Amino acid sequence: MGTWVQIAGALAILAAFVAVQRRWLEPTALLALTLNIVGSGVLAVDALLEEQWGFLLLETAWFVVSVAGLAAWARRRRAPSG
Predict the structure, then answer these.
(1) pLDDT class of 2 with cuts at 50, 70, 90
(2) 27-53: b or e for each residue (b if 16 or more CB lie within 10 Å)?
(3) What is the reported pTM?
(4) Which one of 15, 17, 61, 73 is at 20 to 30 Å from 25 when CA atoms are compared?
């Protein structure tokens, strides 16, 4: 993958991080989770293609945790209120 794809993935993760730190978003907000999933997914694929195993481990873990967060978000949305 190209440098621009790597930068886009990193910027997605950093945007979520800054938004959560500034309290513009909750860590469990759909936008924060989506930015983390997209960014870490892009970077994980790049790390796999480039055989950067430590980076692949980091980004895959970030991706899995973010997907688990998205699944929890979806369960909360489906839960009956009251």
Answers:
(1) confident
(2) eebeebbebbbbbbbbbbbbbeeeeee
(3) 0.90
(4) 61
